[in-house]
Specification:
OB fold (Dihydrolipoamide Acetyltransferase, E2P); 5-stranded antiparallel sheet; 4-stranded antiparallel sheet; single chain; rod-shaped; alpha+beta; 4 domains; Elongation Factor Tu (Ef-tu), domain 3
Amino acid sequence: MVTCLSDGYIVKSYVAEGDMVRANQVLFKLDNRQQHTQVNIARTNLEFASISAAANSPTLAQVKDQLEAARVKLENDSITYVRYRRLLTTNSVAKQDVDNAEANMKSSRSNYLAALENCRITQDRVKQDLATSRDQLKNAEEGNQYYDLLSIGAGKVYQVFKKTGDMVRRGEQVAQIGNPDSIVINLDVDEGTIAKVKLGQRVLVELNTEKNKNYEATVSKIYPHFNETTQSYKVEARFNAPVAGLIAGTQLQANIITNIKDKALLIPHICLSADNKVAVKRGEKYDTLKVETGIISDDWVEIVNGLTTSDLILKWK
């Protein structure tokens, strides 16, 4: 099943039922104008992030200027404090002047360390913004691929569920593609018969599109699960030779050959009663005989004992 991974309108359908497709071929194109807008926004954001992360960017230049100003002030306040302490030894300045100079120096040191941390944080932030913008642009550009629905392999288009102009939601199925050389025959086998079915058994298939014509197939898989809905087991078979013009989904009837016996005596199934009795005419007399049965199909019953080829059997009313 070709499934849509995004919402949008189908603006172009490149395939129809019956077409053969190759791997990675574009099957449908969705309207991606909104996605283009997202790509353009992401590209613009990346451009601004690149400018902010550049060595000479205004953002970094501003914090570097603030850091340099704080460094110069710290240097000047430190020189002033040292000079005032030296002057204090000669009583050229008051003790209060020295204390004020020390307080200014400590305040300048705190401002410098704060400016240094702010510069580091700003540099990390613009680098992170740049990396995030790159990832967002990449994701937006990769999102464009979801608007071109591709075939994952070579095959044949069996069904198309959406056409040009239809709105498709995320997760909706748009088309069905299969390998025409690996058509599987799905058979429902009742629980009374499934024990007789084995892998590799011969199957005679009659398609509803071609009555009275048999194709040969082989049992390829037997599912162990009993289907409560159909009250049957699922069995798969594959054609022994390609069938020209075969259409997926064709109804059919099939006979699985579970046993072969030469020179068997057969009677129509409708001539056998539920308790294994057969009505016969022998000369002018009518009689009911109990018989022993062997292989049983939908139409025929093998009689192992109780009848001869000279007996005239009657259909039950």
